[in-house]
Amino acid sequence: MRADRVLALLLLLQARGRLTAGELAARLEVSRRTVYRDVEALSSAGVPVRADPGPNGGIELVAGWRTDLTGLTGPEVEALFTSAAGPAFESAMGKLAAALPGEGGRRAGRIRERLLVDSAGWGRRSPQASPHLRMVQDAVFGDRRLRFRYRRAEARVVERDVDPLGLIIKAGVWYLLADVAGERRLFRLSRIEEAQTLDEPARRPKRFDLAKAWREQSADWDFGRSGYEVVVKAATDDELGLLLRVAGDRVVGRPHRRVVRLAFPALEPAAAFLSSFGARVEVIEPADVRAALARRGAELVKLYESKGTKKAGR
Length: 314
Description:
Blueprint: H1 3-16, H2 21-28, H3 32-44, E1 49-52, E2 58-61, H4 74-82, H5 87-99, H6 102-112, E3 115-118, H7 133-142, E4 144-151, E5 157-170, E6 173-180, E7 183-188, E8 192-201, H8 210-219, E9 228-234, H9 237-247, E10 251-256, E11 259-264, H10 267-275, E12 281-285, H11 287-313
Parallel strand pairs: 3-5
Antiparallel strand pairs: 1-2, 4-5, 4-8, 5-6, 6-7, 9-11, 9-12, 10-11
């Protein structure tokens, strides 16, 4: 039972009044059977909802009854739009935004201009949570500039002051689209180390189209995922924590007994990334990556042994 869908059903009934099961099913993109099951759930929870069968029947709330969610405060609307991810939720919330009257509908529309759920392609990744999601949301929805420390793919941390334009969630991973010194950039929220909103209004282009901008940015962006996966084992629990923190959204699935599966575009990026961990992380498979790391190690030994011998002979 999807709590977000049941809530959307309740708010649609509250905003539009009597609707048929077919109309509700179409708006929420579910079957009529699911609609009736959700109506039963509302009734069991004490909501006075009535379902009249027949060609002239419909579903409605008992006259005069309204929930405290009537006006939808700002935090409530934001919670609706950001508490779940997925195409069905986005579709239901989009139709709910159109149904909400007055200020609730305007605020919902504003949020929709700044939040995008992209369900096409890529499959499903392990969810990449960010402790700074709420801070970033506040900056995006409040049109405030944002300052954060960001861990790049090669693990180098940089500081950025940005003009936030929108949030995108794709296959369980949150992204921030923002302008940095006039240049449009894309950031993974899971790589933000620290964040704070600035007391400065964000510069936002007029008639900005988040969906179009996302397509343009994501077309050439390295999302760090492909079919090339590497299985590694961390030497200790502390090393495992470091690996997970640095690997970020390269992690596939959940670790088991310090064994982690990582995804890379190809062999060389995998070897380059894992070589930085030295003996703290061992590659279990594939053999190609083990061989590449062995070659890198041999080259380093040869380089530094030869330099050490020359220095000692002086």
